[in-house]
Automatic annotation (TrEMBL):
Family matches, as SMART domains: RRM
Single GO term (MF): RNA binding
Transmembrane is among the record's keywords: no
Name of the protein this chain belongs to: RNA recognition motif (A.k.a. RRM, RBD, or RNP domain)/RNA recognition motif. (A.k.a. RRM, RBD, or RNP domain), putative
Matching Pfam families: RRM_1
Limits of the RRM domain: 9-72
The keyword Transferase appears for this protein: no
InterPro entries with a match to the protein in the record: Nucleotide-bd_a/b_plait_sf, RBD_domain_sf, RRM_dom
Key words of the record: RNA-binding
Length: 86
């Protein structure tokens, strides 16, 4: 049996404004590292969204984690290195 694992340079951002856009995310995190992809998702049964940011290198993870607790559209956001919904 062969197991395939993919390691990506990804962080998850929670507690986002309903009005946040990909442009807002890219602007806030652009200095961390080159952003490969931004994906928005919603928590099941709610309108509250979170996003997944994929960086080119692990430097993006390190630098973006320093932004934890900062404001984006007047709301404090939180960075997670892993995320799952039960």
């Amino acid at each position: 049996m062969s197991l395939n694992f993919s390691i990506a340079n990804v962080v998850y951002v929670k507690n986002l404004s309903a009005n946040v856009s990909e442009e807002d995310i890219r602007e806030k995190f652009q200095e961390c590292d080159e952003i490969i992809n931004v994906v928005f998702k919603k928590f099941p049964g709610t309108n509250q969204k979170y996003c997944q940011i994929e960086f080119k290198t692990s430097e993006g993870i390190t630098k973006s984690s320093r932004l934890n607790g900062e404001l984006l559209l007047k709301i404090f956001f939180f960075i997670f290195l892993y995320f799952f919904i039960c």
